[in-house]
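Throughout our pipeline, every protein is held as a single compact record rather than as scattered files. This encoding replaces a full spatial description with a residue-level series of whole-number codes. The remainder of this section carries one protein's record, kept here as part of the documentation.
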Amino acid sequence: MKRIATVLAIIIFTAGMANAQKFMTKSGTIKFFSDTPMEKIDAINRQVNSALDFATGNFVFKVLIQGFEFEKALMQEHFNENYMESDKFQNSTFNGKITNIKDVNLAKDGVYKVVAEGDLSMHGVTNKVKINGTLEVKGGKILGKAGFNVSPKDYNITIPKAVIKNISEAIQVDVNISLDKLGS
């Protein structure tokens, strides 16, 4: 009986993979930028995991908070210890769907406008978001780009009064990913 169940699971998995249009990356980038008259702060993270199920539009991201690199080591330390509390809240995630995935033609290279809707979680808080971006089909890969703003207060990130004028109320976030088809 156990052997029959195993064979059935393999058949179902193989059949699903034959029709699957799943893409992923482990090397996407997320940059953020804060610009105030007092200070400009920018950081980049190259440890972005992302997956897209093209058949359903389901789309996920996972970002290691400690993976953000800053120009100044002290900024990076304050970001991790004082603001993001990255020992406690290690990741930020997006779990949602590209609502107009049917507008993207995998058989035709080009740039397609897309909308992603879902749950953005960071610092222990989850909010519904709607993000405009593009998916570029190019030589069998999907290149994704998006830019949006995040407000620290929406995620219960406290900025000390001594430096509140150094950090924007809305942080610009830019996402760039290159998704490869699974199994290729």
Q: What stands out?
A: DSSP finds two helices and nine strands in the chain.
